[in-house]
Amino acid sequence: MKKTTLIFTVFLLILSFTTIQAQAKFDKDKKEIATMLDAFNAAAAQADFKTYFGFFAEESTFIGTDATEVWDKKQFMVWAKPYFDKKSTWNFKSLKRNVYFAKDGKLAWFDELLDTQMKLCRGSGVLEKINGQWKVKQYVLSVTVPNEVVDKIVEIKTPIEDAMIQKLKN
């Protein structure tokens, strides 16, 4: 009985140590991701085209607030270039961020509330660790809508989006 208890105790200690190591690794990666996302947002605010788009993986997608805005990296670069050239980009500041990891630690996903010129927005995305650096594989920007005003927003957007809905159904 004592031998079984000892073996079980050793097993629990090894399991605890492994879990602590994994958590410590993810804590380090969370800090790296937070630093990267803050620099990503700062590069946009500073209209630093090269740095901003350097955070995207070569095969990546940007999904904007308008239903028509789904671009691969090259398309998004073409769309964004005039804004960066005019130094009239966006300035997003993270207010609250959550980061999650796949078990193997090679993929992460995040969501964050952002203070923007559009008031609160949500940025979310998928990140992949490529050559030791976290890169954006997909970024989704959403405008938040308080529940108290959803009906008003739906009323405003209905004439615009009904045509799009019909087109998508056909």
TrEMBL record:
<feature type="signal peptide">
    <location>
        <begin position="1"/>
        <end position="24"/>
    </location>
</feature>
<dbReference type="Pfam" id="PF13474">
    <property type="entry name" value="SnoaL_3"/>
</dbReference>
<dbReference type="InterPro" id="IPR037401">
    <property type="entry name" value="SnoaL-like"/>
</dbReference>
<dbReference type="InterPro" id="IPR032710">
    <property type="entry name" value="NTF2-like_dom_sf"/>
</dbReference>
<protein>
    <submittedName>
        <fullName>Nuclear transport factor 2 family protein</fullName>
    </submittedName>
</protein>
<feature type="domain" description="SnoaL-like">
    <location>
        <begin position="33"/>
        <end position="145"/>
    </location>
</feature>
<keyword id="KW-0732">Signal</keyword>
